[in-house]
Specification:
With about 250 residues, this protein is mainly alpha-helical. The protein folds into 2 domains: about 120 residues; about 90 residues, no CATH class. The chain contains 12 helices and 4 strands; from the N terminus they run ααβαααββαβαααααα. Strands 1-3-2-4 form a 4-stranded antiparallel sheet, sandwiched between helices. Helix 2 crosses helix 5, helix 8 runs parallel beside helix 10 and helix 10 crosses helix 11. The longest helix has 15 residues. The protein is elongated and about 70 Å long.
Length: about 250
Amino acid sequence: MEFSGFPSGVHATSIPDPVLGVLLEQIDDLAELKVTLRGFWLANQKKGALRAVSQDEFLNDKVLVEGLKGIDQSPHEAIQRGLSLAVQRHTFLVFQSDSSKPNHKLYAVNAESDRRALARLQTEGGVLLRETIQQEDSYDEPYTETSGDTKPNIFALYENNIGTISPMLAEKLKEAEELYPWPWIGEAFQIAVTQNKRSWAYISAILRRWVDEGKDDGESGRHSQKDNPTNHLEEYRQLRGHLPWESSGDR
């Protein structure tokens, strides 16, 4: 059927420039391309902080079902493949809002606003599917940022929960990773997200307070030997002359 053109006053859907640039250049699967473009339209129909689209909405979308007929898979299989490829490319984030319903998948655009809304959802029991849920089919293998043998990454933690990282902030994060035990860092981020105080200034203030005043770790308010950062701080002082929050004349 010949397309008759765009009528006057037609509604326009907002699509980030990279979709029509680098992603359009990289995507070589028709199902992924159609699911990606349609996914932005479906997400734009949603209201609220997190504009999530359910897997059922994708599978029952008439435009996708009709548009993916005649390929080597059924439309539903092609849609599922397109979704999985879009998640692997990090165009979409996939998660579940109810851990008792592992088959109830929701998809959101991998934009900063949606990442922040997802971080809030995690504190209320929502779970990022790519990090925790095992899938049976090959296209839904969860993306894991860190394996059991890999040290957690403070940069990924910041980007997933707070926002973008400037070069100056990157240096501060690197220093913090050297100074503090990882459980402390993770807990400080969790507190910042829960309190909706999403800034490095707030997180670093928590960590400094724990160093100065002690952190209750279940042992009568004393640091456990494993988590006590005092030795690391002294080594850092000897190496750099002073801690990041101290002036050079403080010691």
